[in-house]
Structures are given as structure tokens and as C-alpha cells.
Design a protein that fits this description.
D-Maltodextrin-Binding Protein, domain 2, 10-stranded mixed beta sheet, two-stranded parallel sheet
């Protein structure tokens, strides 16, 4: 019994030492960023001696960081492209996706703008530059439309460009910013602006616009009646080994605490 006790104690100490030596670096999507931050906060309370860091550089940059070994987890607001998978394999990596939550790419306008709904065609015409005044879609007279777009490294941009724009070319007057918060700030302070952000970024400072009469919400994103619905991901290089820090971090999304965090942020938890 004494020998068994010594063996168990040795195993526990070994596991503790292994865990203490680990570090989790997360890079990628500004949309998934708030979830990453909240997960890190929860994990840091439980494992105060561990090291965590979060960078929000865009989904494309997150993939590159994973391929180059600069992070353990790539946060992405879109699926990984075939070219990215091929680059990962060539680099000796094995990307494994974990669906963290459901989200909607939400069109937002300034709260002073009375427009409540747009058709899919109107959204495309606004962003291609065919529609330039809000009065053309039932809004205020003589108010120019200021379309705000995300940069090409953004997963949110990729989803919007494919699902909403059908890959049509954006108009010359479309402004480009580098993050969800930047779009949010521009729209909340500019009466004529329109932009798009993740569901978790909407509050009273902006107004979500219905598309084809469907307002983005947890319910319409989950049943996909809102046509700009998508999954949010975290990618790792291979499946994290059981009971490692990465394993515990990734499993948080399916835990009661993780589901609570995701819902509080404004995204839709994935419970199955």
C-alpha cells in the first residue's frame, strides 16, 4: 500500500509539473476574440499558474500563426480554406476544427437611421455602390450611405463577401476597417453608416437591420432562417492530448460554464 501511495503521489506531482510547464497562445478572429478572452479569464481563475495570451489579428492571420507555431489555438469566424489546409499539411500540421458557437453576420446602422429592413439585393447594391442614398431604400432624404467593410484577412469579411455579396466587387467608396469594434465604433458615431459585425457585438449603440424581413437573433441564427448565419471555430494542431491545458480549454465550450459565457457574450452556444 505504501508503494502504491508513493506511486500515486509521484504521478500527481508529475501531472502538476507537466501542466505548470504549459502555455496557451491564441491568435485569430476579432469576432471570436471576446469568447477567447472570457475563456482565458475563467481558465486563469482555475489555473492561476498557467500562461495564456490572446491576439486578435483576423482569422487568416490566426491560421498562419498556427502553421508557423506561433499559437496553439487559431480562432476563426469561418471555415478553413482548402489552400490553408494544404499549406498546413505541407508545414507538418494537422488542423482540427472545434465548433465553439453559432453566430450571424449582422448588418448594423446608426440608431438614428429609421431603416429597419433591407432585401438581399439592396445590401449588394449598397456595397457595390449602385445605391448611394438612404432615401433609395426608405431612409432619410439627402443622407449619403457610408458602407463600412472588413479587411480581407477577416473571416467575417469572407462570410459576408460570399453569402451577402455573392462575391461581387465592392464599390470604390466602401471604407475598410480592421476589426468588429472598429466597424461598431464607425457606425455608432456616423448617422449614414452601415456595417456588419458578429451577433455578440450588438447593443443599443447600433441597430441591427433585418434581411428579407428576418432579424438576426439567437433563434434565427440557430434555425438558420437568418441567411447570414455561420459557425465560429477554434483550430488546434491535432486533437489536444487528454487532460492537457489545451484539452481543458477546448472542452470549456461544451461545459455549463462555457455555454453560460457564450450566451452572455451574445453568441449562440452549441450544446450538441
Amino acid at each position: 500500500m505504501k508503494a502504491l501511495g508513493i506511486t500515486l503521489a509521484t504521478m500527481v506531482l508529475a501531472m502538476a509539473a507537466t501542466l505548470a510547464a504549459q502555455e496557451i497562445r491564441i491568435d485569430g478572429s476579432t469576432t471570436v476574440g471576446p469568447v477567447c478572452d472570457a475563456f482565458v479569464e475563467a481558465m486563469s481563475k482555475k489555473y492561476p499558474d498557467q500562461k495564456f495570451s490572446v491576439k486578435k489579428t483576423g482569422s487568416g492571420d490566426g491560421v498562419q500563426a498556427l502553421l508557423e507555431g506561433r499559437c496553439e489555438i487559431a480562432a476563426m469566424s469561418r471555415e478553413m480554406k482548402l489552400s490553408e489546409y494544404e499549406a498546413a499539411v505541407a508545414a507538418g500540421k494537422r488542423p482540427v476544427p472545434f465548433t465553439v458557437a453559432m453566430d450571424g453576420v449582422c448588418l448594423i446602422v446608426n440608431p438614428q437611421n429609421p431603416v429597419k429592413s433591407l432585401t438581399a439585393a439592396q445590401v449588394r447594391d449598397i456595397y457595390t455602390g449602385k445605391i448611394t442614398k438612404w432615401e433609395e431604400v426608405g431612409g432619410p432624404k439627402d443622407l449619403p450611405i457610408v458602407p463600412i467593410n472588413r479587411d480581407a484577412s477577416s473571416g467575417t469579411y469572407e462570410v459576408f463577401h460570399e453569402l451577402a455579396m455573392k462575391k461581387e466587387t465592392l464599390g470604390a467608396k466602401t471604407e475598410t476597417v480592421t476589426s468588429n469594434p472598429a466597424i461598431f465604433d464607425r457606425v455608432s458615431t456616423t448617422k449614414g453608416a452601415i456595417g456588419y459585425v458578429g451577433l455578440g457585438f450588438i447593443d443599443k449603440s447600433v441597430k441591427a437591420v433585418a434581411i428579407e424581413g428576418v432579424v438576426p437573433s439567437a433563434e434565427t441564427v440557430l434555425d438558420k432562417s437568418y441567411k447570414l448565419s455561420r459557425e465560429l471555430f477554434m483550430f488546434t494542431d491535432g486533437v489536444p492530448a487528454k487532460d492537457t491545458l489545451a484539452d481543458k480549454y477546448m472542452n470549456l465550450a461544451r461545459s455549463e460554464k462555457g455555454i453560460e459565457i457564450i450566451a452572455e457574450i451574445g453568441f449562440v452556444p452549441v450544446t450538441e
